[in-house]
Amino acid sequence: YLTHKMTSDEFFAQNVMKFDLIFIDGLHTKEQVARDIYNSLCVLKPNGKIVVHDCLPLCEEHQLIPRCMQNWTGDVWKAIPELKAQNILYHTVDTDWGCCIINKSHDIPKLIDTFNYEWSDFEEHKQELMNIIDEKEFLNIY
Fold it and tell me: Can you give the pTM of this predicted structure?
């Protein structure tokens, strides 16, 4: 495998390859994750998948920026509900801090940043926003 010592933005700016699977677990901010998802969707092969790690913080402190705890997901979760606005199919598996699996979209994605969710929105609508499934459901779907 190849190692690239650069930011994900720098990588995608010079990348010419297409991928079957992309794992996102970099800078844990909504803005960066949204860019990484957008850039990844643009370079996925048909039927490709993206996995985004750290989508299910257990408490509000886990998602605060700047980081204030050992266990930290950042506000990665805030980038996920924006996929629904673009009709992009995704599921968040309730395992290892939440792993969101995003399916290749047939449409050209848009980089959108129109939602401003708060922790109270996450707590109240987590299942709907994140489309959470358990590991058994994951095995049946994927």
Answer: 0.93
